[in-house]
């Protein structure tokens, strides 16, 4: 009886432990208003530094958007692209897909300093800084960014350093084979109903919209008769011209 009771207690403890771990992993969902009460000055501080950086160098807006794009490969937008190499692990900043291709790290550092000063502490994760900075670097498109990402302390591993699109070094060979290559990784096919800002950025290329109507030259009449020319008959051209 004693062994059975001990076994039951052990099973109950194990079930409770798994329940606590599952609750802790899902306890903090992302929320666009995550910093409204925690630090209301966080997002305005990010936007101010981004606007100043783009005013000095206009192409920095596209660079911040590209930095966020590379950060999201391949384990999600976790800010791991900001990690430098250490004696214990290899970071993603100098990986092949990112080196000589991704820039704007100095702007992210300035944003982080400004946010820490505005919030009086390290309350905003680097992943949220990168995501919000990418949003603020886009002009004429406004969308909510869900924040509350955890602080990352490790890189994504070999798949994070090898995944993603080719880096700048791989695109500079003039004699390289330019035929399309299959992707290194298979992206998931399922996507949420709201696709975020991508739909707005792709809108000029959407096939559902009507094509832009180019101006047509005015129709001119026959110079001899003053009448409009008759429409040419449909069909193949004759082999010989009749006299």
From TrEMBL:
Residues 160-170 have a biased composition (Gly residues). The keyword Iron applies. Residues 1-27 form the signal peptide. Binds 2 calcium ions per subunit. One of its GO terms (molecular function) is lactoperoxidase activity. Belongs to the peroxidase family. This is Plant heme peroxidase family profile domain-containing protein.
């Amino acid at each position: 009886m004693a062994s059975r009771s001990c076994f039951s207690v052990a099973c109950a403890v194990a079930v409770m432990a798994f329940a606590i771990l599952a609750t802790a992993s899902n306890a903090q969902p992302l929320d666009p208003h995550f910093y409204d009460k925690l630090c209301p000055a966080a997002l305005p501080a990010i936007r101010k530094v981004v606007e100043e950086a783009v005013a000095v160098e206009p192409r920095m807006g596209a660079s911040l958007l590209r930095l966020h794009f590379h950060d999201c490969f391949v384990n999600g937008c976790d800010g791991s692209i900001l990690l430098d190499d250490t004696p214990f692990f290899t970071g993603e900043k100098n990986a092949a897909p990112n080196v000589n291709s991704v820039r704007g790290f100095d702007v992210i550092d300035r944003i982080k300093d400004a946010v820490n000063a505005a919030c009086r502490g390290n309350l905003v994760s680097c992943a949220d800084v990168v995501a919000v900075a990418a949003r603020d670097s886009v002009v004429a498109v406004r969308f909510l960014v869900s924040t509350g990402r955890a602080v990352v302390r490790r890189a994504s591993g070999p798949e994070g350093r090898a995944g993603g699109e080719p880096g700048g070094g791989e695109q500079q060979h003039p004699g390289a084979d330019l035929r399309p290559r299959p992707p290194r990784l298979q992206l998931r096919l399922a996507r949420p109903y709201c696709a975020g800002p991508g739909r707005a950025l792709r809108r000029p290329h959407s096939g559902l919209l009507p094509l832009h109507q180019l101006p047509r030259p005015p129709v001119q009449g026959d110079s001899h008769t003053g009448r409009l020319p008759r429409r040419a008959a449909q069909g193949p051209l004759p082999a010989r011209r009749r006299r």
